[in-house]
Prior knowledge:
The chain is α/β, with parallel strands linked by helices.
Amino acid sequence: xxxxxxxxxxxxxxxxxxxxxxxxxxxxxxxxxxxxxxxxxxxxxxxxxxxxxxxxxxxxxxxxxxxxxxxxxxxxxxxxxxxxxxxxxxxxxxxxxxxxxxxxxxxxxxxxxxxxxxxxxxxxxxxxxxxxxxxxxxxxxxxxxxxxxxxxxxxxxxxxxxxxxxxxxxxxxxxxxxxxxxxxxxxxxxxxxxxxxxxxxxxxxxxxxxxxxxxxxxxxxxxxxxxxxxxxxxxxxxxxxxxxxxxxxxxxxxxxxxxxxxxxxxxxxxxxxxxxxxxxxxxxxxxxxxxxxxxxxxxxxxxxxxxxxxxxxxxxxxxxxxxxxxxxxxxxxxxxxxxxxx
Length: 342
Ligand code: 89Y
């Protein structure tokens, strides 16, 4: 397979894992990396044998013969870098959360559409091994028609140690983690027609909310509760960054329990199996289930870049997740149900 030449924009925490994730697909060659602090780009280049380093992204796009760019920078820089790539007619992959506002995310999609370049979002959560396995259970129909579900991601893990900028976000857990859990809700259960959300800030040394509780009323009539917190430092079973999911259907129930156990209960009894993620030597063991999901996620985006299939998380598709995220903020601010569709 002829490898696609990629330019990496950003050399922070996630670039360290997305890069080997691209190599794992066997179809990408990263030929250059940009970072505004050049030494960080140099560090990444040395670690992953990337031939050229830039501290000017425009210069990288002008000088290199790239076939796509992968943007792995802070959310406030996503829009300008996407627009830069669109001006250079380069397909662009952008880190989640897509943008700082719904309007900005809509503009990014419009700019790429007008330039005729694909925009894909690197949204990996729905690609986690146990979440894909749960989806297969639901699609098999074994628990009948789901009518209610709970999606929980609650942890005291010190996320601020690896990603200190998270402390500075005025909109924290819904953008950082809600982008993932709400996208997972859409992946498993379809679109929502309304939502209600409450938030709290428990840590006193951060700027944004670190706890959120959401009730999604789905098009199907299902109720989906999404609970998130990075607030409790003392949990008996803290399994960061695993998502626990419980689904009730009219013929049974299915649970994705901690430590990657799937339990399916029907009138025949309970069937239990473990679906652990693959282990990659480049992944941080504390993030295994998330880091390993980068590989199938990026393989899907690569296939779409090659014209060999659809990207599940295109910019257009991810706009629906972004709408949910900012709908949650509106609901929490106004203490009102936000109606997305009548
Ligand atoms: O930034 C977040 C992500 O994308 O996955 C987990 C995380 O690192 C902390 O919430």
